[in-house]
Amino acid sequence: MQKIRNAVKENTLSDPSLISDKDYEEFLDARGKSWVCEHDGRLVGFASVDLIEHNVWALFVDPSSEKLGIGRQLHETMLQWYFSHTTTPIWLGTEPRTRAAQFYRKAGWREIGLHGTNEVKFEMNYQDWLTRNPIPSNL
Question: CB 21: neighbour CB atoms within 10 A?
Fold first, then answer.
């Protein structure tokens, strides 16, 4: 997961040491849930959602595996799970004018302001999600 997070070309970390392996472990199931996508035995993407802060902590795809639908699949799986556990709106921050920002707008996220000094803040509320994606009964 660290390798993918540090390989992305957008939304790069100014200091990769700010996020430790322990941080990733915390999001596997203590604070929320995480998902990975593998292809040919290789990790190519991951997503993590935080039920405490109600945000998307991570959604990243290895640059060599972009444009294959991996990000969309992780996004859909993550939000289906999140909204099957709470109706609290979820938010995320990402750099403006990036493919990520376009991705979230296209997926129905609403831009609600700024996060920190250089990120745009997006929000998805339960009703908007439910209108676009009915929650299956098996989650």
Answer: 9
